[in-house]
Amino acid sequence: MSTPKIRIRGLSKAFGSKVVLDGIDLDVETGTSMVIIGGSGSGKSVLLRCILGLIQPDAGTIEIDGENVLTASRTRQEELRRQIGMLFQNAALFDSMSVADNIAFGLRAKHLPTAGPKPSMAKARELAGNILQQVGLDASVGLLSPSELSGGMQKRVGLARAIAGQPNILFFDEPTTGLDPIMGAVIDGLIVDCVQKLGSTAIAITHDMASAQRIGNRAAMLYHGQLVWQGLASELMNSGNAMVDQFTHGRREGPIGMELRK
Amino acid sequence: MNAVLDPIAALGRAFLGLVKEAGALALFALEALSHLVRPPFYWRVFLSSLVEIGFFSLPVVALTALFAGGVIALQSYVGFGQYHVQSAIAGIVVLSVTRELGPVLAGLMVAGRVGAAMSAQIGTMRVTDQIDALTTLSTNPMKYLVTPRLLAGALALPFLVLVADILGVFGGFTVSVAKLGFSPSGYINATLSSLKTIDVTVGLVKAAVFGFLIALLGCYHGYNSRGGAEGVGAATTAAVVAASILLLTFDYLLTDLFFSQ
């Protein structure tokens, strides 16, 4: 069996006395889209942030292409993480720059020295127009500032910025939260297109079941800092796992509700 | 027993908090400075900060210096008039403006204007994940956001203080000639004979230190802000207050260093 693109072993993180991740083991094979579901505060975001290097885990290993990121040298860490593109929940566009400059920034920042000279700002802005079209926006949107865009358009621009550097790995943090169902489906469609076109490995965290099934081919459920279930995304609605069933069907009664009432 | 110990414990906690904060600030400054010698350097951010601090602060700094120079002339005329040493007014104006009022007033104005803006901008970037987004785009946020601003602060403020020096003396000149009836040439001669290179130089050195401190406090509080709009507001207040206090503290220390012997 080939080395998984991302392999996580025994990953733990606590903030003070609150344990957020409690010995996570997770493999994401190259080219798969993994969807991680779980309630608010179950540690989904923290897991992504640990892989991205935004949060330092307390214990465990994170391997990308079989190499432990956490013990690698600083330069090597940056190299390994350079292949990750991230779409934040609120898009996190730079509001001091125009839309085109945001995408051009992503393009230039992720540029590999081995891929020839870095494109000039003017050239990068030109390329940004093409990338905007890939996410279904007109190139003229590039002239606007992020604050002039609706939530759905911001997400699309965020996606454009994330894919500008043609990353091998893509992370999505609740890509459809705060969008209407149709716009949610549009964003999911774009995500699937981009992941397929780039041949990327993806991890998406969400609690939108429709979105989870559209984006993912694999799925896992995080609960109290532990992965309680892993399987195919198509099995999400009838997994046979009591916790997953309760979560995906949104039932008040079940193992999760009982825990909360204790 | 607790009634006795509690205030002491609280004092200890406050002191430890202060020490911790000072240490964190020093580490923050050192990390930012270390990026000066590690490429790349973000020239675009540096130049826009330089223009923001140096050019757009000109009106407030100019007006402040102009009136401060005028007030010094007026006050010393009223105060010293009875001793018949009116000729000393030009000297008093040039000395106080170049040594103290130029750097301190320009510093305080820039702290209010630029320190607050930096803190609010970087703080908003922090609470809206833009700083994390920089990291995910393979860009070190300290190198991109903080280092260019610190350098811009340290370089722009001496320029502003030079302008404040000139306009402060001009303010004193205008009041003395137009209101107090001094001869223009006499005032200029008296100014030139009291003008010392060391005073101006030390004023500019102070300005560079102040500019660095203002940018440092603005960036530090913005960078570490937490908790949405309220956190950003608190960070902005803290940045301006801390910068103003540190500025006056360093003003005393630098004055002591250069002029006490």
Automatic annotation (TrEMBL), chain A:
Short name of one Pfam family: ABC_tran
Sorted UniProt keywords: ATP-binding, Nucleotide-binding, Transport
Occurrences of domain ABC transporter (ranges): 6-249
Coiled coil: none
GO molecular function, one term: ATP binding
InterPro entries in the record: AAA+_ATPase (IPR003593), ABC_transporter-like_ATP-bd (IPR003439), ABC_transporter-like_CS (IPR017871), P-loop_NTPase (IPR027417)
Keyword Transcription regulation on entry: no
Classification via PANTHER family: INTERMEMBRANE PHOSPHOLIPID TRANSPORT SYSTEM ATP-BINDING PROTEIN MLAF, PROTEIN TRIGALACTOSYLDIACYLGLYCEROL 3, CHLOROPLASTIC
Protein name: ABC transporter ATP-binding protein
Organism of provenance: Gluconobacter wancherniae NBRC 103581
UniProtKB/TrEMBL annotation, chain B:
Residue ranges of the TM segments: 14-33, 45-68, 88-111, 150-178, 198-220, 232-254
Protein's UniProt keywords contain Transport: yes
InterPro entries assigned to the protein according to its UniProt record, in alphabetical order: ABC_MlaE_roteobac (IPR003453), Permease_MalE (IPR030802)
Membrane topology: Multi-pass membrane protein
Pfam families documented for this protein: MlaE
UniProt keyword annotation of Cell membrane present: yes
Source domain of life: Bacteria
GO CC list: ATP-binding cassette (ABC) transporter complex
Family, per entry: Belongs to the MlaE permease family.
Purpose: Could be part of an ABC transporter complex.
Name of protein: ABC transporter permease
Organism: Gluconobacter wancherniae NBRC 103581
